[in-house]
Design goal:
Number of helices of chain A: 11
Number of strands of chain B: 38
Oligomer: heterodimer
Helix content of chain A: 10-25%
Order of helices and strands of chain A: HEEEHEEHEHEHHEEHEHEHEHEEEEEH
Radius of gyration of chain A: 22 Å
Strand order of the largest sheet of chain A: 8-10-9-11-12-17-16-15-13-14
Distance between the termini of chain A: 20 Å
Largest interface: A-B, 63 and 62 residues
Helix content of chain B: 25-40%
Structural class of chain B: alpha/beta
């Protein structure tokens, strides 16, 4: 069941160059660092401060790049997956605090990237261990942070910070490193950060030009060797898409055309997709009017549409519902979500600071999932079409795989649509040039 | 779905006595289950033979049966109580096996009792190794290559396919009993033979060795709607090859990436679904190849386990409680997470923001001959858990919490020569013993390379680097001295968990000096909360641990409060009985309106359940840790008398530091414990003591011994469990003892007592408020003086003492209690020789027998004592002495000899038992028969009894022989005994002693020609000589006794083997035996 994939270094070729890039994470040539179990990189401790907009100051040591960074400070309670979190584009402009005290235990590996770079604006941890150890690892977290030019601080009371964020809500913060790091200056810098409300970050992190994706998971469950023309074609909007979404769709027999956030519906439809995917991403969904408009256009077709996180919020906004900013959001890998239809509880990965207000859902949209932590809306589905969204992260990475079946559902909706088309096409018919009829790649 | 309304009453089976592999974690889980089900309105019926448990308190269940946990007895309880359902998952392997037997025997079907929590099919599939392996391969999970062997020929064929080293695991045994690792054919033959014997199904699994692989455990909870959550991941620092119960483990798993962790999570859930654990908690164990990540499923337990207790304490998620509610129909989303005050549901996965380390505690010093290398068979008797914000901090806290004299990574004694030292280190690193991690530290100290240590130990480099770092720090501290301990530096060191005592040792200063300096510099710990959610939600639950951080979350109240110091890790001599007392103190004082604060570090216990007391400090019981809590909480009273020696050892230092210790004053304790002062008191009261003396040197001891006279009981002062206590018969023995004993007693004097031969020993437990005395009970020992009271069976009320003698005992107890001005509990040991009462010792504190007395009489002694200590009067409490019960209660000890086949299973003044059971009946014989059955001894109904006794027992042997013949036994005896028996006209066959040539007695035992053994010996030589008899008896499971008294008691028990009465504890306490 669990076999390793031999092609472990193929991840970079598939992405075209992205601009602006804050640092090349890996070259496909191999492992930049020699074997694991090497002593960690920090030999001389460089001081660092973390300041919050409310004036709270923490002093610790710098464990990443030197310099300053500002962003919205959030905490994540996931106990594994720091590398996935750091490279998740949804963390753009956010300084992530990890509540798990030892971060960096397994070093870093190219296999565990969720994008080509670190997107988090900064990292806050209690302890970066003296040595990392893992059979897949190729360098230390410290080296990974340095190469990604990410400012990070360790050695602070992260539980105290978490409690402040819990009580007072997510707030702007600043990390400064070096002997001269000045707490007052850091507080001022923190206060200058405007916050994420009203900030459209999707188009900032999105790819500049479209590209194809066909690679599956590192450890796929079963192998599907479908030729490209047999695969379902998904146009995936990149608002900050995580690679594991693409990997899982590929595992399920899809080929993806990943398109920039501002791609119009017309352009997307011209690619003759079997389904539209709206990705996760950072920031406030409300200013993403281009995406909301595109989504509305898709709602007018019979195409299956699946939205995750920001994509889910955009579907909500397209339906006429409203979104709201949460106090400190959901960031973790242990969040219980109830499937309202089956009553089943799913443990999910979560990372969002905005949510769709369930009370504003139109009659044509029903709630499918709710958070058991705070009752907030976690999933929605249109009653009259094959369109649904999920607030958490079915692709996990990091986190549990309980909601993974939603990908299967999306694929089934696409298959069903194709089957219906096939029934409508008279035998011997040729269909349109762009969308030749074919045997559905997947059947139940 | 809400709870099931078709069920009205539920039977819970407990785990029976504390044995290696099954300790008080099952009292914790069982007590939680009882509370949970009762709060849902079910009638709860409980059976457990262990009187020292909280779960067998009469308040815990509607019907409590302290009866043997076997299917026949439980069937009688079912017949009497007619429960609707049976919950078998709370009482360890014992309960599970008993439930399977009940199914197999058709009892559940006959009485329409539904098995809830785990179905038979699921239990079978999980426990039967071959079926389990097949099931795993059906769901695409790998397990180690393995095959079942039913005999030695099978085994040899299989090893030809798999190769050495090979792991041998017997089916259906707990704690891996009878298993091991074979590196060669000889070992294979011996382990397979033992394993086939230990397995109730005579099957062993031979398995590909994955020694050195990383080992993980997942604690999973599932409900009937198929909601599955992982409560906790646990990583074993000791890689595969060491039983998880004997491994140092940490939570959460620290060396997995998310992909690896999630793969394991998926696999765990798939295992539960496949095995069919519909509701409840399970534990799945995995091995991971550190080189390529290959994942193997090792085993799963379809029940709550030692690990689930640890996981509950490590996360704050009460697995057993939730599992019990799931078993009656709830789903996870319908249940609340208590620790967040219900703000979150139980259907989530705890996130923790600290590191938990568990270290097992071993007791090899009790079994000098035992093989102390750790294998797949569990050998530890207890464990300590510690919480810190980092691994280093929690490791350090756990090491000092062990109470084995460690203040951290304390250097071990190594041979002087470099070559020998090297050899010793290599051996200790490669073949793990109880202190491997300390030798790892020593290897770093000795400058060994990281790679060499990693290669020998297979310990993950992540952990080794942490150890290496600590040793580096130690070097720096030593080099810089006191001056180096600046505030900043101290903060760094304390954040790495260094104890004041360790730092002091490193700079060669008194501990006090370091503490003063630290306090002067304002470096103090803060307390963080365990909240299941890494601070994402607020909690009002005060489950706290210390760390050196910025923010303190202790929020002490201004209520009237009393702090109770617990007993630390279980060990032989200090176990669940003391935890029972601590829990009772907490409960009673809480009822009285005090805020109760518990301090303890044993994850198995009820006392460390976060809702037992108002506040729980999960901390090591060292002076430093306790002083810091005192400073934070400022309680009005501190109770040190309930947790055994652990808190008592601290009492003087605590008092010096100004702690308000309540109860009997340290002055009185000193009178009771100081030989000379106590002697004066005994004289003053006109009581008698055996002749005695106190010696501080070997020569002095020899001189004094001549005055007192041999035989002598010798022991160091201030010990519990008879540690290093011996009976010596001559000067040579005494000198030998003195040479060994001074080491164990840390320079405190050695006590010499004239040994009272053929005396009846008696224990009395009492409560005194300074004026009035409440006698809890008088217990007559079954074994004569000379066997440690913890190892001796005893009977309440006394079965042979006259009313007049009993009244004298009461009177002497009252005298001593009031003279010593005892406030609280007191235990006195008396010996009666030829009708004369001698006072052996007085302990003004909780004793091991308090729970037994409370269960036997219905008087909650510990609760009453706690109230008295808080200032109340016995008269005000409305308790008065009750007449002795009309039924007999017998306590019997349970021994771990099966786990230590090399050790001599003989009883003596040093305690060796791990647990106890209780039997009740109308007669002593009936109660004793039940106690024997509960302790796992199967009394033969007839057959051949081998008798061989020391000279002093020869008259008694005749009496025993006669009774056995009357009951249909035939006798076999060695020469001396045979002559005695024949002279008395008893028919008896003579057999050779081992040294007299073959065929000898051991041959007979091996040939299954002996059904019962009574073998008493004294003197080093005789003991050594008869060792093989006892060991063979243990091995062949032949019932054997090493005292004549037990043999005689057995004769009485033989008359009651067919009596079928089971007694509800509540009825007994009402004075009504069942009809």
């Amino acid at each position: 069941m669990f076999t390793t994939n031999s092609s472990r270094f193929v991840y970079l070729q598939v992405f075209g160059p992205r601009a602006p890039q804050r640092g090349v994470i890996y070259s496909p040539a191999g492992r930049p660092e020699s074997p694991s179990h090497k002593r960690g990189f920090i030999e001389v401790s460089v001081p660092a401060v973390l300041a919050l907009a409310d004036g709270t100051v923490f002093r610790g040591q710098s464990i990443g790049a030197k310099g300053n960074t500002t962003g919205e400070v959030v905490f994540n309670t996931a106990m594994t997956g720091y590398q996935e979190i750091l490279t998740d584009p949804s963390y753009a402009r956010q300084i992530v605090t990890l509540t798990c005290p030892h971060i960096g235990n397994t070093g870093a590996t190219p296999e565990d990237l969720e994008s080509a770079q670190i997107y988090a604006a900064g990292l806050v941890v209690r302890d970066l261990p003296v040595r990392w150890s893992n059979w897949r690892g190729s360098e230390s977290l410290g080296a990974f942070l340095e190469r990604g030019r990410i400012v990070a601080i360790a050695g602070i009371d992260t539980r105290r910070l978490t409690r402040i964020l819990r009580e007072r809500g997510a707030q702007s913060g600043c990390i400064m490193t070096g002997e001269q790091a000045d707490a007052n200056a850091a507080v001022i810098a923190a206060r200058k950060f405007p916050g994420l409300k009203g900030m459209d970050l999707a188009k900032v992190v999105s790819t500049r030009r479209s590209f194809q994706w066909n690679d599956g998971s590192v450890w796929p469950e079963g192998t599907r060797t479908l030729r490209a023309h047999q695969r379902l074609h998904v146009v995936a909007y990149d608002f900050g898409i995580k690679r594991n979404i693409l990997r899982l769709l590929a595992d399920y027999g899809c080929r993806m055309t990943v398109v920039p956030a501002e791609t119009s519906a017309e352009e997307a439809l011209a690619l003759a997709p079997d389904g539209i995917f709206l990705s996760n991403g950072p920031g406030d969904p409300e200013p993403c009017t281009y995406a909301i408009e595109a989504a509305r256009a898709f709602l007018a077709t019979d195409l299956p549409v699946f939205g995750i996180c920001l994509g889910h919020q955009i579907l909500g906004l397209a339906s006429g519902a409203r979104t709201l900013k949460m106090k400190f959001g959901h960031h973790g890998a242990n969040h219980p979500v109830q499937d309202l239809e089956s009553g089943r509880v799913l443990i999910t990965s979560q990372n969002h600071g905005f949510a769709v207000d369930e009370t504003t859902l139109p009659a044509s949209v029903r709630a499918t999932h709710r958070s058991l932590f705070d009752g907030s809306l976690q999933g929605l589905a249109f009653t009259d079409r094959a369109v649904f969204g999920f607030q958490g992260h079915p692709e996990a990475s990091p986190g549990p795989h309980d909601v993974k079946p939603l990908f299967e559902r999306f694929v089934q909706l696409m298959v069903r649509r194709l089957q219906a088309q096939l029934r409508q096409t008279p035998p011997g018919g040729t269909g349109s040039a762009q969308n030749p009829p074919r045997q559905p790649a997947l059947s139940r | 779905m809400p709870k099931r309304s078709d069920l009205k009453s539920i039977l819970i089976i407990g785990a029976g006595p504390i044995v290696i592999g099954q300790a008080c974690e099952f009292d914790y889980s069982g007590a939680q289950a009882c509370k949970a089900l009762r709060s849902e309105g079910y009638r709860v019926i409980l059976v457990n033979s262990n009187p020292a448990t909280i779960m067998t308190d009469p308040e815990m269940a509607d019907a409590v049966y302290i009866e043997p946990v076997n299917w026949r007895t439980v069937a009688r309880i079912i017949e009497k109580e007619r429960p609707d359902a049976l919950l078998p998952t709370m009482g360890g392997q014992t309960a599970l096996n008993t439930a399977l037997d009940l199914v197999r025997e058709g009892v559940l079907e006959k009485f329409s009792v539904e098995l809830i929590g785990a179905k038979r099919e699921a239990i079978d599939m999980a426990e039967d190794r071959e079926r389990f392996r097949n099931a795993m391969s059906e769901i695409g999970l790998e397990s180690p290559h393995s095959q079942i062997a039913r005999n030695l020929e099978d085994a040899l064929r299989i090893v030809g396919e798999i190769g050495f080293p090979i792991v041998i695991r017997p089916s259906f045994t707990l704690g891996g009993s009878g298993g091991g690792i074979a590196y060669n054919r000889e070992e294979l033959e011996s382990i397979v033979a033992g394993g086939l014997d230990a397995s109730p199904t005579s099957e062993v699994l031979l398995e590909e060795s994955v020694i050195g692989w990383k080992e993980f455990e997942m604690e999973v909870v599932r409900d009937h709607k198929d909601n599955c959550i992982i409560i906790c991941s646990i990583e074993n620092l000791d890689p595969m090859g060491v039983h998880t119960g004997d491994s140092i483990t940490v939570a959460p798993a620290l060396t997995l990436t998310d992909k690896e962790y999630q793969r394991m999570r998926d696999a765990s859930i798939a295992v539960l679904r496949k095995i069919g654990v519909d509701t409840g908690g399970s534990n799945v164990q995995f091995a991971v190849n550190p080189r390529d990540g290959r994942l193997l499923v090792i085993e799963m337990n379809p029940r709550v386990s030692r690990s689930s207790a640890l996981a509950s304490k490590a996360t704050g998620f009460p697995i057993a409680k939730i599992a019990a509610k799931l078993a009656v129909g709830y789903t996870l989303d319908e249940l609340k997470n208590d620790i967040t005050g219900g703000a979150t549901p139980a259907s989530f996965e705890p996130a923790i923001d600290y590191v938990v380390t568990k270290i097992p505690r071993f007791t090899f010093e009790k079994f000098p001959a035992a093989n102390d290398r750790l294998t797949t068979q569990m050998k530890s008797v207890g464990e300590v858990m510690a919480i810190g914000r980092t691994f280093q901090e929690s490791l350090h806290k756990a090491l000092r919490g062990l109470e084995t004299g460690l203040d951290g990574l304390t250097p071990q004694a190594l041979p002087p020569s470099a070559e020998e030292s090297e050899g010793k280190l290599t051996h200790e690193l490669r073949a793990p013993g109880p202190n491997r991690l300390l030798y790892v530290a020593d290897a770093f100290r000795a400058g060994w390379t990281f790679e060499r240590i990693a290669e020998l130990t297979h310990i993950d480099p992540w952990f080794l680097a942490q150890i290496e770092d600590l040793i580096d720090e130690e070097r720096t501290v030593s080099a810089e001295g006191l001056a180096g301990l600046t505030a900043a530096r101290l903060r760094v060191l304390k954040r790495k968990g260094f104890a004041d005592a360790r730092l002091a040792k490193l700079i060669d200063m008194p501990e006090q000096a370091v503490r003063h300096k630290r306090h002067d510099l304002g470096v103090r710990p803060v307390y963080k909360r365990v909240d299941t959610c890494a601070a994402e939600f607020s909690t009002s639950t005060a489950y706290l641990y210390s760390t050196y951080e910025e923010e303190c979350e202790a929020e002490p109240s201004t209520r009237r409060k009393i702090m109770i110091l617990g007993g630390g890790p279980n060990r032989i001599g200090q176990g669940i009985e003391f935890d029972y007392c601590c829990v009772h103190a907490a409960l009673s004082l809480r009822e009285d309106g005090f805020e109760t604060i518990m301090v303890n570090c044993n994850p198995e216990t009820v006392s460390t359940d976060y809702d037992t007391s108002d506040r729980l400090y999960f901390e090591p019981l060292t002076l430093e840790d306790v002083l810091e809590i005192l400073e934070k909480e400022k309680p009005e009273g501190v109770i040190v008398q309930f947790g055994g020696q652990t808190p008592l050892k601290l009492s003087r230092a605590l008092e010096q530091a100004g702690a308000p210790i309540i109860g009997t004053s340290p002055e009185s304790i000193d009178v009771a414990e100081d030989r000379e002062r106590f002697q004066a008191l005994v004289h003053q009261l006109g009581l008698r003591q055996p002749a005695n003396a106190t010696a501080r040197t070997e020569d002095q001891a020899v001189k004094l011994a001549r005055e007192v006279g041999f035989p002598l009981v010798v022991r160091p002062s201030y010990v519990l469990g008879g540690r290093a206590m011996e009976i010596v018969f001559n000067e040579e023995d005494l000198r030998g003892y003195m040479n060994r004993a001074v080491q164990v007693s840390n320079d405190s004097p050695v006590l010499l007592d004239r040994f009272l031969d053929v005396a009846i020993e008696v224990d009395v437990d009492a409560v005194c408020d300074g004026e009035q005395v409440l006698i809890g009970g008088i217990m007559e020992h079954v074994e004569q003086a000379g066997v440690h009271s913890g190892d001796s069976g005893c009977c309440l009320p006394p079965n042979s003492l006259s009313a007049q003698l009993q009244e004298q005992l009461r009177e002497q107890t009252r005298k001593l209690a009031t003279a010593l001005n005892v406030i609280g509990l007191m235990n006195i040991q008396f010996a009666i020789q030829n009708g004369v009462i001698y006072v052996l010792e007085v302990n003004p504190r909780a004793s091991r027998t308090v729970p037994f007395v409370s269960k036997a009489t219905g008087v909650p002694l510990a609760k009453i004592a706690a109230r008295v200590m808080s200032g109340r009067r016995l008269a005000d409490l409305g308790v008065s002495e009750r007449p002795a019960p009309k039924y007999y209660s017998v306590k019997e000890a349970v021994f771990p000899f099966v786990k230590f086949p090399e050790a001599d299973p003989i009883l003596g003044p040093e305690m060796k038992s791990t647990g106890e059971v209780m039997g009740t009946g109308r007669t002593f014989g009936e109660a004793y028969a039940k106690a024997q059955s509960a302790s796992g001894v199967t009394l033969p109904r007839q057959g051949v009894c081998f008798i061989s006794v020391r000279d002093r027992d020869k008259p008694g042997a005749v009496q025993l022989g006669r009774r056995l013949i009357e009951r249909g036994f035939s006798l076999v005896a060695t020469e001396g005994t045979a002559r005695e028996l024949s002279a008395a006209g008893l028919e008896c066959r003579r057999v050779n002693k081992v040294r007299e040539g073959r065929p000898h007695i051991v041959d007979m035992i091996k040939n299954d020609e002996i059904d019962l053994i009574v073998n008493t010996t004294e003197g080093k030589l005789a003991i050594l000589e008869s060792n093989s008899i006892r060991r063979e008896a243990v091995h062949r499971r032949v019932t054997y006794y090493t005292t004549l008294a037990a043999g005689l008691a057995t004769c009485e028990a033989l008359d009651h083997l067919d009596e079928v009465e089971v007694n509800r504890l509540q009825d007994l306490h009402q004075g009504a035996l069942s009809a």
